[in-house]
């Protein structure tokens, strides 16, 4: 872009882009071969932190088969504890979500985003009270730089969605996936409770993972992946996030100062600890930063299910679990989901954790 920073009007460019309701996919469809300035990121956003070879660090892979049986369960709980304390991320196999259900969801997300613009734009909205909406960058209007991706969200936090509320192209796939994901959520809730050394029904009883928000991303092929990024470095505000990614790759997690690839593997789901879980576990479990690189290949498809407190607990105070303190001082003050999300969204994706704002000292 030739515009000097003194003459460049980012707000105007962003507004004009947003009004197309065509997203980043629309840029590619229009024949763009250069990344527009509002999507460009500063060089530090691409820092590799001297990325080691994949043999140095590997994201833990946990086999959930037989988690109901005592012998297997002890080992699975141990692996989840270690992964949650040191990585904040783990991949899951034999998690109970059938491959056909996974493949159908990935295909449905792709089909939604590849519909004609005129069909898709009916769903385009920045109104966060709309339980199903398509948009490009939730923080487009407040962030300094935008990410190379489009999204559709399905908000189940207030309960089930009526079948007629869904875009027809992805109705069945999303409904089937969520039925299986809720079973997995319940299993992980008890396994994480045991990994914390508290009763297996504890996290379920405080309903900190009861509400589901499914965000389905579409990352188009990028002509200049060294100038923009798919998802900026961030941690999730949820209690837990369960991620499905296709085979394109690009997801990286920050571990011991290094960006480590989370390699795609068919049928595998990724779990990552969110900010709220780190807060209530008083830093025992880690919510870690991660990002998604833009690629010359694609599109990349992913579906992130953010698990939050239930709608009835939106204003319930959550603080460090007293049973875990055992003489230690709480690191964080109590907060509720409404306050935490309000702060998280207002600051935008600036690469800094929202958790520090809630520290007592």
Textual characterization of the structure:
It is a single chain. By secondary structure, the protein is of the alpha+beta class. The chain is built from 10 helices and 12 strands. Strands 1-2-10-7-12-5-4-3 form an 8-stranded mixed sheet. Helix 3 links the parallel strand 1 and strand 2. The longest helix is centred in the middle third of the chain and has 25 residues. The radius of gyration is 20 Å and the shape is globular.
Offer a quick outline of the entry.
The protein is of the alpha+beta class. It has helices at 10-20, 23-29, 70-86, 99-113, 117-120, 171-195, 202-205, 275-280, 322-325, 337-347, and strands at 61-63, 89-93, 132-135, 150-155, 211-219, 229-234, 240-245, 251-255, 258-261, 269-273, 290-293, 300-308.
Helices and strands in order, then pairings?
Elements: H1 10-20, H2 23-29, E1 61-63, H3 70-86, E2 89-93, H4 99-113, H5 117-120, E3 132-135, E4 150-155, H6 171-195, H7 202-205, E5 211-219, E6 229-234, E7 240-245, E8 251-255, E9 258-261, E10 269-273, H8 275-280, E11 290-293, E12 300-308, H9 322-325, H10 337-347
Parallel strand pairs: 1-2
Antiparallel strand pairs: 2-10, 3-4, 4-5, 5-12, 6-11, 7-10, 7-12, 8-9, 8-11
Features:
four-stranded antiparallel beta sheet, globular, 29% helix, alpha+beta, 10 helices, 361 residues
Mean pLDDT: 93
Beta fraction? 15-25%
Strands in their spatial order, largest beta sheet: 1-2-10-7-12-5-4-3
> Treating each run of at least 4 consecutive H or I residues as one helix, how many helices?
10
Radius of gyration: 20 Å
Shape annotation: globular
Characterize the biggest β-sheet: 8 strands, mixed
Query: Helix/strand/pairing class, anyone?
Result: alpha+beta
How much helix, percentage-wise, in residues? Answer: 25-40%
Written as H for each helix and E for each strand, in order along the chain, the element string is: HHEHEHHEEHHEEEEEEHEEHH
Distance between the termini: 44 Å
Query: Multimeric state of these chains?
Result: single chain
Number of strands: 12
The unreliable regions are: none
